[in-house]
Amino acid sequence: MRRTLGRAAAGFAAATLALTGLAACSAEREGTTGGESAAAEETIVGIAMPTRSLERWNNDGDHLKALLEEAGYKVSLQYADNKVEQQITQIQNMVNEGADILVVASIDGTALAPVLADAKAKDATVIAYDRLINGTPDVDYYATFDNELVGTLQGQFIEEQLGLKDGEGPFNLEPFAGSPDDNNAKFFFKGAWDVLLPYVESGQLVVPSGKSPASVDEWTSIGIQGWESAKAQSEMENRLNSFYQDKKVNVVLSPNDSLALGIAQALESAGYAPGAEYPVITGQDADLANTKNILADKQSMSVWKDTRTLGNQVAKMVDSIVAGEEPEVNDTETYDNGEKVVPSFLLEPQVVTKDDVESALVESGFFDASELGL
Description:
Elements: H1 5-11, H2 13-16, H3 38-41, E1 44-49, H4 55-70, E2 74-79, H5 84-96, E3 101-104, H6 113-121, E4 125-129, E5 141-145, H7 147-162, E6 171-175, H8 183-202, E7 205-206, H9 229-243, E8 251-253, H10 257-269, E9 280-281, H11 288-295, E10 302-304, H12 307-322, E11 344-347, E12 350-352, H13 357-362
Parallel strand pairs: 1-2, 1-3, 3-4, 4-5, 5-11, 6-7, 6-8, 8-9
Antiparallel strand pairs: 10-12
Helix pairs in contact: 4-12, 5-6, 7-8, 9-10
């Protein structure tokens, strides 16, 4: 049914050439001077992360904290257990303790306006980390990956794997979207759905569950709250039990690895096993468990966002702010939060398949070969 992963990966080479040399990226940032400046020692940086329950946020928080502390900054790193009020309280505490710069990966990008107004009243600079903060003029910069491109790469992967451009089909598709309160989730879904919706409309992709948004604007109808694996598993089990008694699912659009884990578990429980007829499953983040699933043919791909590069960029932003300079940005048009267009720095993601795990993830130091059984 499917084309080889190697051929699909080759098809994405042009889209990911910008990350050539990423394997050489280390945990150290280049060209920064924070540690050499007395100003760094007088600067407090508060880092607000959403949760410890997802592997990537632990990696992000630890990496950025280490970079900043090495440069001489005083750092407060807090995780909020995916509870909005807890994150608000943590940020307020950072403000009260005199944080000069706040780096915030929000749980709910619409809930932080009051606490950020207080931060701005005390002259703090706010950097939105990976997730845009909406409905407030008090966010100064945004650093993230090109989130719509993440979805585009997932959609193009499905398109290539199934031979949709060549007219092949029909195939049974089940689409999922991310947490409705995460601003990035819409961008992920839009990128993928812009590619896939024409095939749904033509009948090459069929959605037996009926959970097929008629437009990108309806993405929350299939969103999984909190990006929880267990909720994705339950939803996939419901779809399989209700709509697949006499048919097989061929492809699942999963916007990230957390959902893909639950989806794969549901498929396994329903008797699906790796092989020629196993569904195409997308993902994002290259989490350890998912990378192992990719090697075991239980997941087809993951869009890798090397969050070390994101942390490196944010650390450079912090250095620039402390030095009284404007941080580097490369997008001043895309990210309108309802109050302002937030100056942003976008990094490019990379498709990783089974064929790429060693060259992309191991050789770059993202994983040790032993962690993956290689």
